[in-house]
Amino acid sequence: xxxxxxxxxxxxxxxxxxxxxxxxxxxxxxxxxxxxxxxxxxxxxxxxxxxxxxxxxxxxxxxxxxxxxxxxxxxxxxxxxxxxxxxxxxxxxxxxxxxxxxxxxxxxxxxxxxxxxxxxxxxxxxxxxxxxxxxxxxxxxxxxxxxxxxxxxxxxxxxxxxxxxxxxxxxxxxxxxxxxxxxxxxxxxxxxxxxxxxxxxxxxxxxxxxxxxxxxxxxxxxxxxxxxxxxxxxxxxxxxxxxxxxxxxxxxxxxxxxxxxxxxxxxxxxxxxxxxxxxxxxxxxxxxxxxxxxxxxxxxxxxxxxxxxxxxxxxxxxxxxxxxxxxxxxxxxxxxxxxxxxxxxxxxxxxxxxxxxxxxxxx
Length: 363
Prior knowledge:
By secondary structure, the chain is mainly alpha-helical. The chain has helices spanning 3-7, 9-30, 33-65, 69-92, 98-126, 133-152, 162-185, 215-244, 253-275, 279-308, 318-334, 342-360, and strands at 129-130, 339-340. The protein has twelve helices and two strands; from the N terminus they run αααααβααααααβα. It has a two-stranded antiparallel ribbon with strand order 1-2. α3 runs antiparallel to α8. It is globular.
C-alpha cells in the first residue's frame, strides 16, 4: 500500500462510509429505530475520522505559517465542520434550540473539558505550566461579550422584533471578529504566543515533519475532508433524528454530538501540547475554539434564520446561563497569572462533569 494512501486511511474509511450511507440510507430508515441509531453511530465515527484528517492538514498549514496564524487555522477548520453539520441538521431537526444548545455544549467542552483535562494532565506531569496571560484575558472577555450579546440579551427581545435583533447580532459578531482578527495577526499578535526554552519544545510527532509535507496536497485533502463531512452529516442527521424519535434520550443529545464531533481533533492536539509542556497552544486551541464557535457560528446561523424567516431560540436557559457564568468566572481567576496547574485543571474538569450530569438529567 503506497505511503500516501496509508496516511489517509482514515479519510478513505470516511469516504467509503459516506458512499455506504447514501446507498443504504433508506434501508436503515425503514429497518426501525435500532438500525437507524446503529447507522448513525457508525457515521458519527466516520465523521470523527474525517475531522481528524482535516485537523491534521490544518496543523500542517499551521506549522508552515506559525503562530498566531497556525492556531487560527486550527480553530477555523473546526468551526467550519461545526457550521456544516449544524446547517444540515437544522434542515432535519425541528428543535428550535439546536443552535443554542450546540454552542453552549461546545463552550463547555472546549473551556472545561479540553482546557481542564489538558491543565490537569500537564500539571501532574510538569507542575506549573507557563503561557501568555494576555491571551487568556483577551479570549475570556471576548467570549463573555459575544455570548452575552447573542445568548443572554435575546431573552429580553420581543418576539415580534426578533429579525431586527438578529440582524444586529450578525453585525456585532462581524465587528467583534474583525477587530479580534486584526489584533491576533497584527500589532497585538504577541498576545497569543509564548517563547519557550528550546529544551521544553519536544517534537509532538517524531514520525513526520509538517514542514516536509506538500502544501497543495494538504489544502486539497482538507477541502475534500470538509466535503466528505458534509455528506456524512446529511445522512447521519436523518438517521439520528429517526433513531431518537419518541425516545427518552436527553433533549440536547444532538447538540452534544455536534459539539463533540467538531472538538474531537482539538482534544488530541491539546492533550499532546499539554504533555509536551506547551500550554500556550492549549489556551489558544481551547479558548480560541470557544470564541470562534460563538462569534462565527452565530452570524451564519442567524443569517440562515433571516433567510428562511424561521427564528430559533438563542437565549440560554437559566441553568445554562449559570453554568456559563461560573465557567467564565473560574477561567478568569485561573487564567490570570500566566501559569496553570493540576488544581486549576481539576476545577474546570469538575465543571465539565457537572455539565454532563445536567445534560443526562435533561437540564
